[in-house]
Every structure is written in C-alpha cells, then in structure tokens.
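Recall that a protein's primary structure is simply its ordered list of amino acids. Everything else, from secondary elements to tertiary packing, is in principle encoded there. The following example makes that idea concrete.
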Amino acid sequence: MFLRALFAGFCAIALSSCAGDSPDPPLNQEQRVTLSTMNATPARRLFGHLLDSSDGQARVYGGYARGCIQGAEELPETGPTWQAMRLSRNRNWAHPEMLDFVQDLSRFAATLPGWEGLYVGDMAQPRGGPMLTGHASHQSGLDADIWMLPPDRLDLTEAERESLSSISTRRARGAYVGENWTAQHWHLLREAASDPRVARIFVFPGAKVWMCDNETGDRSYLRQIRPLHGHHYHFHVRLHCPDGSPDCVEQVAPPPGDGCDEARAWQRNILNPPPPQPDPNRPPPVRGEIMLSDLPNQCSRVLVSSP
C-alpha cells in the first residue's frame, strides 16, 4: 500500500546518487525502491517525485533546510490577486499559514499602482523535504519566493507561466538597486516584513541599503529583512514555526536592531571585495547528499503516508 502511495505517478528514481541537475533515469520493475533501499536513496529523490501531500493535520517537522511537512495544502494555481508560476515543478504547496500569508500579501499588492497582485514562485513540494534541484531550504512548507515582476494580468496560461521570466531589480552585482526597482517594491517588502508571522525576508544587499536610506518612519520591520546574494528576481519570505508544530525547528532570531550596518558591510564587500583568504591548498568543501536519516524521524512516516 505504501509503495503505491509513495511512487504513484513517479517519473523515476534511480538507486545510485547522481550529480548535477540532469533528470534521473526511469525505473524498471526490478529497480523499484523498497523499504530496504529507501535509506540508501538520497532524500531529494524520495521527496522530489511525490505528486500529493500526506494525510493528517498540517504539521512541520524539523527545520527549513532539514525537514518535511505533513498535511501540506496546495496554493490554487490562480486566485483573485495571484498566480502560481512554474507549475511543472509542483512546488506550490505549503503549510496553511503560508497560504494565508501569500493571499493576504497578494491582496495588498493589488492596491499598489501597476500591480494586479503577485506572481508566486517556488514554495515547497507536496511533502516538503529536499528538492531534486535548486533550493537548500523550502523543505518545511514555510518558505515562499515572491517575484519582483509586477503582474499586469492574472490570466496567464500554463505555457506562459513556464516561459515568462521575472525582472532583475539590482545594479552593480547587487550593491545598488537598478532601474526596475520601484517604491512599490519597497512598500510590498515593508508590508511583508511587518507581518508578525514572518521570521525573515531575504533580498539582495542593495535593496536593504536602499530601504535603510529611505525609511523615515517606523524602522522595526527592517530587522526581518536580511541581505542575501541572488535575491533580485524574487524575494524570499520565511515564516516562524506555526502553532501546532512542536517539532518544527525555529531559526535563530536576527540580531537586535535594524541590520542596516550589516547590509552596508555587504555592499562594501561587493564594491571592494576583500582579499582572498590565504591557504590555496585548502580543498573545497564537499557537500554530501541529504539522506532520509538526516531528516527528523517523522519524515519517514510523512514519506510513505497515503494522500
């Protein structure tokens, strides 16, 4: 019973590990993953092909980069003020609290000039866990990527959602905001970061510095906005552990204060990179596969639970 629930609709899971983002080869009947081989299979290839969420009340197990979620719910592909993008990835699943947050934020976005709502990028897989490609986090249903592209229509076809690209809002490798950055982006980020459900928002350093320089009112929300390279086509929202999930692992809170000095340090390091650390003989770190045993014990049950 568990095999049918676990692997119905799988495109493939090979039993040996592979590198890179190339697709896994199809399984033949003799290669089906069994209980005896699950622990030898990288967790991303166990969770990455599941099509449906597990049964049970929504509950988060573990942390944002080592976890899973029971009873995740799917963000509807289209709503009054949002559209889920890249549907082929099947990553529009999350804890119900995240779904509520996204819909609340999308309604606010629809009040901004030039915005009809939100384009919502990756959230989580149906049962969370490590992904086949991409994110190290997004494993517990509490992370979501919000596109920087202001939606001017919310009737995109499935094909358009696969081909349409977001816009970059950075300049000078992220040290400054670029020509696509607007006050509306600021207002959207401020609204999101002011929500008490939000633990952190990741955005490129220049955006944080710009907000630090331009905010003349309440600055408390700036503490939740953290600089991180690469977040210029979208910003990344991370929620606190929700009620009813005692086994959810909360991230350490940001340091006190608005974090503006830290953001300016990021900016300076982009403009004037520090000299490389001596020790050219030091080998690069090896990033191993996350195995099922690296996740909370409850994730095994989430993995094999019927939808």
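Residues 1-32 have pLDDT under 50 and may be disordered. The radius of gyration is 20 Å.
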